[in-house]
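Q: Give me the 3D complex with phosphoric acid mono(formamide)ester.
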Amino acid sequence: MRHFTSVHDLENLDEALKLAFELKKSPYKYQDLGKNKTLLLVFFNSSLRTRLSTQKAGLNLGMNVIVFDINEGGWKLETELGVIMDGDKPEHIREAVPVIGRYCDIIGVRSFAKFENKEDDYEEKIIQQFVDYSGVPVVSMEAATRHPLQSFADHLTIEEFKTKERPKVVLSWAPHPRALPQAVPNSFVEWIRQTDYELVVTHPEGYELAPEFMGDLKPEYDQMKAFQDADFIYAKNWAAYGEYGQILSKDRSWTVSERQMAVTNNAKFMHCLPVRRNMIVTDEVIDGPNSIVIQEAENRLFSAQAVLKMILDEIK
Ligand SMILES: NCCC[C@H](NC(=O)CCC(=O)O)C(=O)O
Ligand SMILES: NC(=O)OP(=O)(O)O
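A: Here is the predicted complex, encoded as structure tokens.
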């Protein structure tokens, strides 16, 4: 594998899963693989888990790691082509990206949807420039439309906690005060559709995800019906895709609480974090015995390490 921007970059999902579990058992098994290789993590947006787990994953493989918060200390970047740069942005992304590529062997990029223009976001204009012009392998650390390192960790977590071969996994929209990207739900749906789990997506009308991610899957608009006999509840807010970037509802009857969890099959509760308590999920549920959000976050280490290992194998 050269770049990792979606589940489709993996040559074999089962092998990737196996590798991640192997690394979880023996995190230092390949500690010489990354010797004299540099991982450079570029953040256009905030992060706790991705920042720390991807750094640690690189370190476990013996890599040198540089973290660059580009908005704090870097030059403000122009991303449009053909503009006269007489404003407040001194550097163009077309130079910045190949220059960054000269200082490292693998680049990680976090760049959220900007919600200014649906086409720009869904064409992945920012991360695609890194793929096209950096000259080195690129790993998505959450781009405009996908967060594959998260989905990989989510898959590992479901595999660890499932009690039946084909668990029912429910992705539920939940309310939030701000407009959030569709990257996590898109990526989760795309990834889980590659497994044989039963997947149900529930949200209020107007929150339909892009058809390229949903495929044949139809949403269930009745949240209680969706939760019936579920084995895993994966909560997430996202802003509308159709009315792009709009908040259409803040209905707190969608907040995941004991009322909905009661109709599940003693379901585990998952969320990618950071989570707004008592908006997305009540304290009782997230603090309860079925919440696996910390174990899920821990698995971010092993999804990142597996991805870096697969890329290092290719470039060594
Ligand atoms: N990578 C995990 C989620 C990142 C981002 N959440 C956020 O921006 C939360 C911000 C807030 O709660 O105000 C998202 O939903 O894609
Ligand atoms: N889940 C996740 O990606 O968290 P951060 O935004 O803190 O990296």
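A quick observation: The chain has a mean pLDDT of 98.
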